[in-house]
């Protein structure tokens, strides 16, 4: 290898020299020659060859690296990035190409931490090279996606927010959709299930942008799952109604649970256990109360369902229905009252909860109609008194 490099170095014509280097690179990569590739890159970065010519060769080297298999690529790419050292500013474009390929390989090997670190080291905000809004957004979103695979929603949020700074300048619709999906997943991981469900559901209706039906149904399923996990209350009830009325929902495995919640039926432990099997790992985490997100959501739902049947119930009876100790049942409903998700009065002296009857939208509308009819009837009566002939 040293002889080949020396022979090329002795060529005086710059164009011929560059072409010979390219031929050597092709030969090395075709043979998956890691040792020879390292020797060549060390030579190119230490030579007195003008930067304009060495950059041409190293640019070709970076692009042609895609012909290396995964293991050789990791070794050659890592060595090259390390060899750039203090001269990396002179090879920003080439470094970006190498890091992009290296991150893809790490991702394929499910080494997402290394993939994220490799890609995030690319300088996307420097003034030395022009980076399009689409490229910036793509890189930032990809890094966020890697962190989501690691269930590191905080880091994912940081990079997805960076993408959000330029996404309005992007022309690529698929890129914008990826950004929104990433945002929904971050909300999901942060346990902001109500908002995550809304975002997923909006995305599930974006069929006009060429999203395949299976992906739209997956997004709808994510929306239903998050709605089921969301805190029980009026907002969640409205969202469940919207999802239940979507004709596509009936074909999904989450439909049975969705229907029971929408119909305000009491959810039993076997239902919870069956649904829990379909959840992702982060959905199964326990809260400070000692219950999982799903257990808490279904117990809160059951409290609302009970409030539709009973005017009052003791904490002991409530605990029996929820299959938890009375004191935990009391804490659960107290939290719902405090967050204005249910109207009730807790009588701790007598150990009883009094539910306040709430008029739903239909009852309120009916009352308004009745009031209007009474006003019209009164008006007709007044007119009849003034103009008896019209009576």
Task: Describe this entry's structure for a reader.
Its main location: cytoplasm. It is found in: Cytoplasm; Nucleus. One of its GO terms (cellular component) is COP9 signalosome. The chain contains 19 helices and three strands. It has 391 residues and is mostly helical. Among the domains are: 1-123, Serine Threonine Protein Phosphatase 5, Tetratricopeptide repeat (Alpha Horseshoe), CATH 1.25.40; 361-390. It has a three-stranded antiparallel β-sheet. It is elongated and about 110 Å long. The model has no long low-confidence stretch (mean pLDDT 89).
Beginning-to-end CA distance, first to last residue = 114 Å
Distinct helical segment count: 19
CA-based shape: elongated
CATH class of the domain at 1-123: Mainly Alpha
Named CATH topology of the domain at 1-123: Serine Threonine Protein Phosphatase 5, Tetratricopeptide repeat
User: Mean pLDDT, nearest integer?
Assistant: 89
CATH architecture of the domain at 1-123: Alpha Horseshoe
